[in-house]
Amino acid sequence: MTAMEIDTPHGPARAQLHCAEQGRAGLLLGHGAGGGVGAPDLVAATRGAQAAGVHVALVEQPYRVAGRRAPAPAGQLDTAWLAVAEVLSREWFDDLPLVFGGRSSGARVACRTAADGQAVAVLCLAFPVHPPGKPDRTRMPELDAVTVPTLVVQGRSDPFGMPDQGHHREIVVFPGDHSLRRDADGIGRTVEEWLGRILRPLD
To answer: Which Pfam families match (predicted)?
Structure first.
């Protein structure tokens, strides 16, 4: 594992790089609003991606690097994310295809930036469809706007809601809630299989 700081318009971000033996793509994974890159589902997804021959960068947003827990506004998150993606693509991933992903808030960032970042696919862990108890405040337009292959891994009893199947979008449901702690091995296998399948035409 290699760690590096990357300058963004909103302060330095940090990336933990986990390389695969044969890099066929680069996967950027972002954390949740109040959490870090050590979340169990992010760790499981990293292992699954490496098994599929994909390099992984676990990306900490500038507000977390600065020690703040409250997330920055969406526009700042997206701008910082794209700045990190540009540097990683140029300096570490050798212009390999990029997959954007993350858990919860990080999944929203990945969806919003997929087009501008030219991501070939999007991985969403615990996508927060709506705030708990407020189904009228839906974030589904962010997910629906993604036009590349998308995998959503969701807990069956997630209080943030359950997204619908959609064009280019697969939903895989695991026991548990928003934390996705119950079946790390299953999440890893799911990510490995999905990446292997959607990247095959690009090999």
So the answer is: Abhydrolase_11
Q: Which contiguous run of DSSP H or E holds residue 89?
A: helix 74-91
* Three-state secondary-structure class, residue 2: strand
Residue type, 56: V
How do strand 54-60 and strand 25-30 relate by DSSP bridges?
A: parallel
CB of 52 closer than 8 Å to CB of 192:
yes
200 class by beta-carbon count within 10 Å (0-12 exposed, 13-18 middle, 19+ buried): exposed
Place of tokens 């199947």: 165
Domains of the chain with CATH codes: 2-202 (3.40.50.1820)
State both tokens at 125.
Answer: 């862990």
Q: Where are the beta strands (DSSP E) in the chain?
A: 2-6, 13-18, 25-30, 54-60, 98-103, 121-125, 150-155, 169-174
**Spacing of C-alpha 5 from chain mean position:** 19
pLDDT at residue 1, as a whole number: 83
Q: 59: which 2 tokens?
A: 């990306």
Cβ atoms 114, 86 nearer than 8 A? no
Q: Give DSSP secondary structure letters for 138-152.
A: --HHHHHT--S-EEE
Kindly indicate the confidence band of residue 58, based on its pLDDT and cuts at 50, 70 and 90: very high
Q: Cα separation of 47 and 44, whole Å?
A: 5
- 9 — phi, psi (to 5°)? -60, -10
